[in-house]
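Quick one:
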Amino acid sequence: MLIAMVAIAAVVAACVGGDASGEPSGSSGSPSASTGAPSGSADPTATGGPTDLPSNGPDPSETAGETPSLEPSGPAASPASGCSGSDDNRTFFHQAALSMGWPVYCAVLPDGWFLETGSFRLAKGGYLEVTYRGPADAHLALAEGNICDGADVETCAPRDAVIGPAPFGDREGELGRLATSLVLDLDRGATPSWRATGLGLTEEAFRGLAEALIEVED
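Output:
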């Protein structure tokens, strides 16, 4: 009987020891898992979601709110809408006119012409240059602003011969020839000055394109 009781006590002790050792291992594993989950889900949610979305969300909505008030007044107030080319081309000229302290001119061209290249800078008083391409590979180039940038006028605005006065938009320039090109200078050698160059055009056609130039008001 005594031996049986000792055996039962040993079994009970073994069972209690197994439960005790199992519970700590289960509870220590559970906190470890729960600790990892919050750090993994909370950080990306807090950083990636709330931080990025609110900062990016309101900005576009604010811009979208301001844009309607700016866009109608911009094109309506500027004759850039008369410039030949795409909407992006007209925006380019409008931005240039707003940025420069002198009149910016653009071309009004017949069908078959397009703006091939264009750029402007604000440094040293500002400078703009664009090139249009037309039928039969004809070209019309405009240079405006600080054309000479300190260089001699014969270097920055060369010509072989002077033909005479000719309209440059609403103003009068001086028409000349340079090799196989026609050139029309307005305030040649000054800053600012304007120069139109025609290649592959008759004098009559070049005069017509130069006279059709319009000023883009800011």
